[in-house]
Structure formats: structure tokens, C-alpha cells
Amino acid sequence: MANTIVIFGASGDLTSRKLIPALYRLFQKNRLPEGSLIVGVSRSNFEHQQWRDSLRTSVEEFANDCFDNETWARFADTLYYLPGDIKNADDFESLAEFLDTIEPEHHSGRLYYLSTMPQLYEEAIKQLGAAGLNNDETGFRRVIIEKPFGTDLKSARALNASIHGVFREDQIYRIDHYLGKETVQNIFALRFANLIFEPIWNRRYVDHVQITVAEEVVIGRRAGYYDTAGILRDMFQNHLLQLMMITAMEPPARYDAAMVRDEKVKVLHSIRRMTGGDFASDTVRGQYKGYLKEEGVPANSDTETYAVLKLYCDNWRWKGVPFYLRSGKGMSCRTTQIVVQFKNVPHILFGEKTREPVGNRLVMQVQPAEGIQLHFETKVPDSEMKTRTSTLDFSFSNTPGGKSLPDSYQRLLLDALTGDASLFARSDEVELAWGIIDPILAAWRSPAAPPLYEYETGLWGPPESTQWMYKQDREWFDVC
Ligand code: BG6
After folding, report:
1. The domain containing residue 267 runs over which residues?
2. Is the predicted ipTM greater than 0.90, yes or no?
3. Domain assignment present for 109
């Protein structure tokens, strides 16, 4: 059944770089329900055709591997534009009328995508409700909300409360684009479609887990947002905690939105909240050299561009196993990886004459070298019993369909259209995540904050972070 996707913030960057190219790709693959319409709303005064023309340029650029004129012509026919101000109730009335005129009878549903400034989310939701656009008697009405979802627990709770005044929880899709990544979904497959990992996926065999999201880029022109957010809000409350939840969760009884999210939420409940001396001993903060010179950054800013958190899950599976979460801008390369470091063998037979084996290690490469590597010891040929580390290497790019993995937004838009919320954050999940991050934010802004280390761009963050790991008899797995 055909649907309408209404994008608020239609003249913004996300719409032209991500949403429309993703919708174009879905359209080309015949994945969008036949007869689907896309309506853009923003304050700019475009005609339908002007909006289509500007989007053509973006699709040519961001979906250039599959752009063709014939598909574009058919896709462009589904695009409409309506000037509208989120603060203006009349504009929502006009939108309601407009949708009624373009949608044929028996149209099945509407998906509203809030791709506006986050300060406008509450207002947009309120206006949708006031104009009756939430009424789902004749077809589904769902809303996708972009990140950031609040700036702390209090604001996230307030936002949830306002949204729940207009939409039921099952109509709300909070995006974390990391969950749309194929390789993140592949962690579910690796863990729950195989028998061999589960028996060792616990405190008896795992020494620690490292979750790294390193970015080569610096903040560029995003100072206005970034300097007030900092890396904990920008990356940890959402993406890194999501990766941790999927790595640490119990197998759900069924792969559906309720059960998957129930299990993820249990992980958040089990994460030990930091208190007292933990902020100094279990966190590292950094800022790249040159950050203070970025356009728009106050000269005395102490905003973090690098952070490490050492978190524990206090439950039967993970008690005592540290999860090191690390992210930084201005790092050596762009890489997202989850490393499960297993313990060493209990009794070393071959190491004494050579070197100790390093312990098995499973590396899940989320991006850009999407794949999985298992490191294990093998005998050095023609030696006494010397061993060395070898690697079993799986790469998505060597598998059928794995050369160019679909962008997150394709998957997430499709799931929201079909009503599958498994890869979206639930209200309790978002609030619990803030509950973990808020005390750290507060401690870092207090007089007792741990030092903010400077670091050179192009390396692996502050050298103090490397030392900090050594002190725990561990080392970062820094591989690009
Ligand atoms: C966004 C952050 O959510 O994720 C950015 O706001 C960050 O600061 C980006 O660069 C990283 O996403 P990806 O998909 O490029 O790893």
C-alpha cells in the first residue's frame, strides 16, 4: 500500500545528502511501496519543480553509482514541496489539506520525518497533533525523530512526555543511524545465528571489550552545535552505548522490536553508574590541539573531542569485565570496531621459550573495512614449538552483495515504513542512556574534573590514554 513521507527540514543538509538519496535508491530497487509520495516542508519558498531540481543535483552526487535519468524522472514525479513554518499552525492546516489533495483514496499511511533543528521537535509534534495529523483511523501515522534526543536526562524526559501527548510509543521512531549499519546488524547474526561464540561470550572467557569509534575528521564548521554538545553527548549517549548494548545483551526470545529492545534495556540497567573516584579513575578526556582555533569555538572552551569510559555490566554474564568505550575526532583514521579480547590460556605450554601468546581476539569491523577477524595462535613452521598470531579474516566486500553496503538511512526508512521499530531507540532506552552519561558530564564540569589532555591530530588521541591502558596491563587495539 502506498504511503506518504513528509520531511520537515526539507531544505536541510540531511535531506539532500542522506534522506532523498536513500529514498531514491529504495525507489530504484522497487522497495518503496508503489505509489508512495514524498512531501518536503521547510520555510524556503520553493516551487515543487525547484525542489526537485535541487534534489536532482544531490542525488547525482550522493547516489552517483546508480543514478539514471529514466529512474530520476519517475522518482521526481513523486516529490512535492510545501513552504511551511513549524511555528505556524496555519501551515499545518495547509499541509493537512495538501496531503488530502495529493493522496489517492485508500492511501495507507504517513511517515513524518523530523529533520529540523532539535529545538523545534516539540513544537512540530504539538502542531501535528493540533492539526489532527496524528489521527491514524484511516492509516498509520508514524514519526521519525533525528538525534540528538534531548541534551540530558531532564530534557529527554520532557521531550518524551510531549511526544507521548500526541503519538503512542509504537508510532515513534527515534533514529540512531548506527543501528542502520549492516555491520551493526551483523553483530546480531554473529552472536545469535552461530553456536560457537555464545559459550565463550562471558566473564569466564572474555578479558575485556574495546569499542572504538575513531574519526579522522575534526569539527569543521559545526562549532555552534559541537562546542555545547561535546563527544559524550554527540557519540557516547547514542552510538557507543548502542554498540555496547548489542555486544552485551542476552539473546532475545524473538527478533522483534519489543524483545530486542527489552534485552538492550536490561544491559543499560546493569551498567554500573559511576560515582566518587570513578570519574577520575575510569574516564579519560581529551581535546585535539587546534580545537580552540576552530571557527566559532570560544577561546577557553574545555569541550572534549576525545573520551574513554570504562564501564562495567553488573550481571551474571559480564561481572568484572571492563567495556572500554573510546571515541575521538582528529584521530589517525576513520574506524569503528568492537574488539572482544579473550583471556589467555590457563597454562602456557609453548610460551616460555618464545613469548606468551596474546590471547584470542575477535574483531568486528563496523566500518570502513567491514568484516570480522579472529586472531589465534598457530605454530611457526619449521621452528621449535614457537607460535605466532594468525588471523581468520572475513570481509563483506568479498561476498555477493557485499561490495557496496547500503547506507543506514535506506534500512531505517524502510523499517519505519513497514512498522518495524527493532532498530530504533525506545523511550526508556534513551532515558537510561542519559542516566549513565549525565553524572559523567556533571563530574567533568565540576572543580574535581579529571585533566583535559591535549593531543595531536592524526594520532590515536592523548598519549595519557595509552599509558592509562598500560597501567591496567592492557593495550589499545589501534589498527586502521
Ligand atoms: C553523528 C555525529 O551522529 O555521527 C557526528 O553527530 C559523527 O559528529 C557521525 O561524525 C559519525 O557517523 P558515521 O556514520 O560517519 O560513523
Report:
1. 179-406+427-471
2. yes
3. yes
